[in-house]
Design goal:
Blueprint (H helix, E strand, L loop, with lengths): L10 H55 L10 H16 L5 E5 L5 E4 L11 H7 L4 E6 L13 E11 L2 E11 H53 L9 H13 L7 E7 L2 H8 L1 H18 L5 E6 L2 E6 L5 H15 L3 E3 L2 E3 L3 E7 L7 H17 L3 E4 L9 H15 L3 E10 L5 E12 L3 E3 L1 H11 L2 H18 L7 E5 L2 H4 L4 H12 L6 E6 H6 L1 H13 L3 E7 L6 H6 L4 E4 L1 H5 L5 H16 L3 E4 L5 H10 L3 E2 L8 E2 H17 L1
Parallel strand pairs: 11-12, 14-16, 16-17, 17-18, 18-19, 19-20, 20-21
Antiparallel strand pairs: 1-2, 1-5, 3-4, 4-5, 6-8, 6-11, 7-8, 9-10, 13-14, 13-21, 13-22, 14-15
Helix pairs in contact: 1-2, 1-4, 6-7, 7-8, 10-11, 12-14, 14-16
Bound molecules: ligand C2E and calcium ion (CA) (2 copies).
One calcium ion binds next to loops.
């Protein structure tokens, strides 16, 4: 058994795009944190410089000033002390530049020894008022004269105090690089930790996404499975069945195949009397049996309720399909115990042949369903779809309307097939065979539309049309004087009011002697209602019309009836004639039918003679007349006229 499983939409792709999006987000986070850290590093460098300035102010400059305000007239001892401190600081590269300013911002001491310059700086003034500033600059940035740009430095102005009052301002240029390096060293670790953290975060997110997408995929698979399966039996449901059946039907490499619908009899009774619990148990058991009975390539489904579907893709003909299905029904029907009660499930099956009975899943299943109704009506068993059961086929319904019009629109034509004497080869008659020149479907043969006409009552006007036109052409075809025109009659026609009168009227209208008409009826037509048929046929034969029993050998004619039916001719069914040379049993049937006909003084005609050997064999058996492709195919009137002329010449030359 095959159960197709559809894959849910590619979950891998979903995962990949998730991973990419997360990578972008985490990277953006890293960049953001990195820049904010870097600006933090700058701030830290500035405040480190300020701390250094405070320390220098408190530990070196303020003691050097010794409580005197910084002014133009610094005592030489003070200058010396300041110079000593400054030299030491610059020597240690702690500062790049050191100036002492007065509380008014004027330079009173400078590391370059310039002494009092009187130059005022706003920043120094602000520092004296308590607004301490530190900012990043370059050593000679303010120095317009030098123009040269020095190393990066932090410029700090730090107020100098003594006894609680401001006695000056210390101006410092602290080298930036060493501080930054110190700060950076701290940050390097931070950066490393940050990077490790972010990578770890990314990996965790990745893992989370992977498990959720996996779970999603599983649940998508689960959903797809649930959507396609019947929860009770775990078999595919109708939806899945239709889809898979369509696939088989569309498969070009597929040849043949059948689809069947199986239905349990009296399931409702089990359900009602033993409870739903037992009803479910029965369905479950049937599902298991069906799986066991099905072949490896067969497709199964629970179509709903107590209906199961099965596709047999490997069967080639309806006989095999029927045999397989009978076996399946037998296996389903084995007794089983439900709540201690023995049940013998009984099932019916209807089937349709893929391609022959329909090309798509919906049509095929509908037709298998129609066949199932017939099977159920018969009690049980296996039934193949028969188009005649299908009254609701939209194509057929449309055709009914068109067929009604066809008669008026001159779309119907008659073809004629010669009937010859097997002994002399003389033309003894012609059979009129109906064709429908359909505007869209092309030339249609009777099989395609006659059953429809018979079901809808159109058959009466149709037969009247054929009778009228066939008789109308007896003369125009140039049929020899003694030759007859054979017209086929349907079973339904015999039920028509005054059928015999209508036939005789047609003969009268066309001015044809009744002895030149043969009416061909099938056995089944006659025996559908023997009494009625007998009455009609008696009237016709009394008037001189010959009655022929068509397709003889197929039905189950009681030989006793034959004598009373006013039949003049038997036509041996072409199924026996076709292979009488190779099939001994068929040859025996042909031989005995000929004998039977002769014993009853009936003319015997073999139809379906396809080759000279068969024709010769039949002649030797004493068969009177013959018809078939081997003698002449059915042909349109114009061709028939030519054929008759040619045939007459050939006969004369014999
Ligand atoms: P049928 O009465 O048995 O007609 C003979 C059928 O056998 C014709 O098929 C003919 O073409 C075919 N046939 C003739 N010789 C050979 C042969 O050597 N080999 C084979 N394989 N076939 C041969 P067609 O014309 O398709 O007609 C099919 C059936 O339709 C007829 O079977 C007849 O039952 C019915 N039918 C045809 N015309 C009419 C009609 O006007 N009214 C009614 N009621 N039935 C008709
Ligand atoms: Ca016939
Ligand atoms: Ca026939």
């Amino acid at each position: 058994m095959r159960t197709d499983q559809r894959r849910p939409a590619s979950v891998g792709r979903v995962f990949a795009s998730f991973a990419a999006i997360m990578l972008v987000v985490v990277a953006a986070m890293g960049v953001l944190l990195g820049t904010s850290l870097r600006s933090g590093a700058e701030d830290r460098a500035l405040s480190a410089a300020r701390v250094r300035a405070q320390i220098i102010a408190a530990s070196a400059i303020e003691p050097a000033l010794d409580g005197h305000p910084a002014a133009a007239d610094l005592a030489p001892t003070t200058i010396r002390a300041l110079t000593t401190v400054t030299d030491q600081l610059t020597a240690e590269s702690q500062v790049l530049r050191l100036r002492v300013r007065s509380p008014q911002g004027r330079v009173v001491f400078s590391d370059d020894g310039s002494g009092f310059t009187g130059e005022i700086d706003d920043e120094a003034l602000e520092a004296a008022e308590g607004h301490v500033e530190a900012h990043l600059t370059r050593l000679n940035a303010d120095d317009d004269d030098t123009g040269a740009v020095g190393p990066r430095a932090v410029e700090v102005y730090e107020p100098l105090h003594a006894g609680g009052s401001v006695i000056g301002v210390l101006e410092l240029y602290v080298p930036y690089a060493p501080i930054a390096a110190e700060v950076q060293a701290g940050y390097k670790r931070l950066y490393r930790d940050l990077t490790i953290g972010l990578v770890a975060l990314y990996l965790v997110l990745l893992g989370l996404t992977l498990t959720t997408t996996r779970r999603l995929r599983q649940s998508a698979r689960g959903n797809a499975y649930l959507a396609d399966h019947d929860p009770l039996t775990d078999l595919p449901n109708r939806r899945a069945f239709l889809r898979d059946l369509d696939e088989v039907a569309q498969d070009a490499t597929q040849d043949g195949g059948a689809v069947a619908v199986i239905d349990m009899a009296r399931f409702k009774t089990v359900n009602d009397s033993l409870g739903h619990h037992n009803g479910d148990a029965l369905l479950l058991a049937l599902g298991v049996r069906l799986r066991a009975a099905a072949g490896r390539d067969d497709l199964l489904a629970r179509l709903g309720g107590d209906e199961f579907g099965i596709v047999l893709p490997t069967v080639r003909d309806d006989a095999t399909a029927e045999r397989v299905l009978r076996r399946v029904l037998r296996e389903l029907g084995a007794p089983l115990l439900l709540s201690g009660i023995a049940i013998e499930p009984e099932a019916s099956a209807g089937f349709a042949m893929i391609g022959v009975d329909g090309a798509d899943a919906t049509a095929l299943l509908r037709r298998a369903d129609i066949a199932l109704s017939t099977a159920k009506a018969r009690g049980a068993g296996v039934v193949r779809f028969d188009p005649e059961q299908d009254h609701y086929d939209p194509e057929r319904l449309a055709m009914v309307g068109e067929l009604g019009r066809a008669m008026a629109m001159d779309e119907l034509v008659l073809h004629f097939q010669p009937k010859v004497c097997l002994d002399t080869g003389a033309l003894v008659g012609a059979e009129a065979l109906l064709r429908w020149q359909h505007p869209r479907h092309g030339l249609l043969y009777p099989d395609a539309f006659l059953p429809l006409a018979e079901q809808t009552g159109l058959i009466d006007p149709l037969t009247e049309w054929v009778l009228d036109h066939a008789l109308g052409q007896v003369r125009s075809l140039g049929l020899p004087k003694h030759a007859r025109m054979s017209v086929n009659i349907s079973a339904r026609n015999l039920g028509q009011q005054q059928f015999a009168t209508r036939v005789l009227d047609a003969l009268g209208r066309r001015g044809i002697e009744s002895s030149r008409l043969v009416l061909e009826l099938t056995e089944t037509a006659v025996f559908a209602d023997v009494q009625r048929a007998t009455a009609v046929l008696e009237e016709l034969s009394a008037a001189g019309v010959a009655i022929s029993l068509d397709d003889f050998g197929q039905g189950q004619t009681s030989i006793g009836h034959l004598a009373n039916l006013h039949v003049r001719e038997l036509k041996i069914d072409r199924a026996y004639v076709r292979d009488m040379l190779t099939d001994d049993r068929h040859a025996a049937i042909v031989r005995s039918l000929i004998e039977l006909a002769h014993n009853l003084a009936l003319t015997v005609v073999a139809e379906g003679i396809e080759d000279d050997e068969t024709r010769e064999a039949l002649r030797e058996l004493g068969c009177d007349e013959g018809q078939g492709y081997g003698l002449a195919r059915p042909m349109p009137a114009a061709a028939m006229i030519e054929w008759i002329k040619r045939h007459e010449v050939e006969q004369a030359l014999r």
